[in-house]
Structure formats: C-alpha cells, structure tokens
Amino acid sequence: MEMQRKITAREDRLSNLPDEILIHILSMLPRWHNKEVVRSSVLSRRWRFLWKSVPISLDFDFPIRESENDNLLYLASIHRELYYWRNCEKIQKFRVWRLRYEDRFAKDIDLWVHFAIKVANVESFALGIIDTNHQRYEFPQFAYKNASLSYLALWYCQLNPTGSVNWSNLVSLSLGSLPLTDGVMEKVLSGCPNLECLELDSVSGIHRLEISSVKLTKLTIRNYLSENPDLWLEILAPYIQNLQLSGYCINICIRQRNVASLVTAALHLIFDFGNHDLEKEGSYLKELLHGIAHVENLELGPWCIEFLSVLELKGWQPPPSNWKFLELPALQQLDLPGLCSFLPCSLDLEALVIDWRYNDEERDLLSRYTNEDEQIRRFETRNFNCSFPNLKTIEIINFHGPLSENKSLLPLVKYFLKHATVLEKFVIDAIFKESDMLDHFEMTQELLSFPRSSPQASVVFSYR
C-alpha cells in the first residue's frame, strides 16, 4: 500500500507539469518511436490527448532493389500510417523518397500530397521519385496554394501550374531532375515572397533565371542541363549573397552587375575535358571568374584548380579580385606554378584554407601539357614577384599520409612563409597513423626551420 502511494505521488508530480513541458518531454523521443508518443495516452486522463500536439515526422524510404510486390506492399503501408496519424494536430515533416514511379501510382501520391498539404498542414514536405520508364508524376493543382509549408523538395515531378502559385511561407525550395520553363519558374518565384534558399539540381529548360526578391539570398545549382549547347542560362539575381555551382554547369552566364550583392561563391564544377570542348570550357571558367571577382569568400573544387593551371600555362592572367577568404582542394606539384600565379590576384586575401581530402584527384588534363619535373623546375626558378600583404591565417586541413611522401606540402609551406608578410598563424591539421609518427616528427622539424617574412608567424601542428 505504501509503495502504491509513492508511485501515485510520482505520477501526480509528473502529470501536474504544464502541458508545454509534457509535450516537450514527448517530443524528445526519437522519430522512429512516434507510436510510443501515441501510447502515452493510456497513462492517465491527463495524458489522453497530449500526443496530438507533439511534433511528428513521417519519413518513408522505399526499399532499394526490391521486387514490385515489395514496393506495392510498402506503398500500402504508407496509406495505413497516414490513416493512423489522421488525428494528429502537429505533423511537422512528411517525406517520401525513392519511389519508382508508374502512372498507376498517381492517385496514391495525390492522396499523400493532399494529406500533407491540406490535412496535416506540414511545414516540410519532400517527394523524391525515381525514373524507371520515363513516366513523370504531375504535381496536383490543389498543391500550388498553401500557407503552412516552409520547406518543399520535389524530385522527378512535372510542374505545370495553370493558375498562380501561392506558397506564402515557403523559405526553402529544392527542385531536382525535372523539366522547367522560364514561365513556370517565374510563376513559382513570384508565389514565394518569403523564399530564402533555392536549389536547382539537374533541371533543364530554363534560360533566364530572374530573382528579384530581397529575401532570396542563397542559390544552389547542380548539373544544369541545356538541350541546346548554344543556349545559356542567364542569372539575374541582384540580391543573391551566396552562390553554389557544382557538377556540370557549363552554360551558365553570370555577370557582376547581375549579382552585385554576392558575398560567397563555391565552384565545384566538373568539366568534360574532351578536346572538342576544351577551349569552350576554358573560356567559360574565365568568364565565370570575372563574374564573381567581387565576392569576399570563394571556394574552388579540384577541377577548377586543374583548369586554372592549364590556363596559366597558356599565359592567362586572372582578373583582380576582392577575395578575403579562399578555400582550395589539396594541391599537387603540377598545381604549384598555376596557384602562385592565381593567388596574388587578390591583395585583400586574409584567410586561406586548403582541404587535403581531395588529394587523390588525378590531373589528367594538366598532364597533357606538362609533367611534374617541368612544373617543379618552373616553380623553383620562376620569380613569383608577389606578396600577400593581408594574409593572416593559413590552414591545411584533413592532411593524411606520411609527410615525407608528399612532394607538394614542403614547397607550399616554404612559399607562403616567404611571401605572407603579416602572417600570424599557419595551422596544419593532420590525420596520421602511429607508424608515421617518426616521419611526422622529422618533417615537422624541417618545416619549423623555414624562414618567415612575418616575425609574428607561428606554425601549429594539430594531430589526430
């Protein structure tokens, strides 16, 4: 009897907490324990309806490489789940991914979209479809008007709004593997007055992307597909602050006057490197660097570095730039002369990061024009009459492998210590095996012996 009174007292103390606290406690359960939240309703009368106000995430990933019957069973299980959650007042996220689409599934997906947008009023909705037979799901007309969505991701769908679009609270929009037109894109953007982030992945059909909203500040484009190689995608986005281009994006036109507010740019481009496209791709990269020369923060991928080295061999001089922060991939001996020609174009450079994760990237294109011995000779004998008057910090991160086996690190460190006149800190963040400890110690002593033009420069090694 005494034990029962103690248990009851504990239950009372918990049940007497405000609803907000109890709901917060239930919301801390992992999303795969969603149904445990519902089961809390049997604890007592006090808990009976609390679960309805707990934020829930519904996440459905179709199995990979399963049979048609397995997919049909999984599809049916989604309907059962939605019926189970029909009375929940707080479904925040609803995601369906990797559905191998067929036209016969259109009505099923319509029901899911209706549940998410009209019944549950979710804040985040993602629909990812896999193309199996060139059939494409058409996003339903009723879904183009919604006031609850803040995040929307659609992959391999067909967008064709017959009327206006009204996603009044949408903050982030991701569209992937779908055809668009300039008219559809204009309708979508005009219907998203609060949009802040736009992501376009493997889209085709648009040739003019005009973004006039002051709130939309981040644009990401991956693998822009142009059916006509003579047609370019022109970007007019005067208020964009962050631009990310990755993959194959050869036909994108960016001019400084059209992206005047741009602060940060990341170029992780992939080039074909076919002989017939080489001149075109080189011209494209040069124009692109002119278009973003005014940004403060720049990040370049491995293929950009390789192409810049080729352009340097051909005598091209990069335009004067305003970069204050620059992030580059791991550098090889072949890259060094090109790098030393490229970096001084920005006298404002204050911080440099070199990420060694990309050290295994081959330099197939650059090898057509030169070799390591020739590049080392050029690097050692050429008078790089430059300095970095504002460069204060340099970081080499994710370095791995024995220091003695890397032929580019020592010359690189020596070069920067010589030319960075106000350098304060040079950090080398290394991942190494215990067997490399002696090698690292010996090479560290050599690095520390290099002359420095900046009296306050310190070289710091961070091992993990």
Tell me what you see in this structure.
This protein is α/β, with parallel strands linked by helices. Among the domains are: 1-54, no CATH class; 279-464, no CATH class. The chain is 30% helix and 23% strand. It contains 13 helices and 22 strands. The protein has helices spanning 2-15, 19-27, 34-39, 68-84, 106-119, 182-190, 278-291, 302-313, 336-342, 364-367, 372-381, 409-419, 437-448; strands at residues 56-61, 91-100, 124-130, 137-138, 145-146, 151-155, 157-158, 166-167, 172-176, 197-201, 208-210, 218-222, 233-236, 242-247, 252-253, 264-269, 297-300, 325-329, 351-355, 393-400, 425-431, 458-463. The strands form four sheets. Strands 1-2-3-6-9-10-12-14-16-17-18-19-20-21-22 form a 15-stranded parallel sheet. The protein has a three-stranded parallel sheet with strand order 11-13-15. Helix 5 links the parallel strand 2 (91-100) and strand 3 (124-130). The longest helix has 17 residues, at 68-84. The model is unreliable at 1-5 (pLDDT under 50). Residues 385-462 form the FBD domain. This is F-box protein At5g03100-like. It holds the Pfam family LRR_At1g61320_AtMIF1.
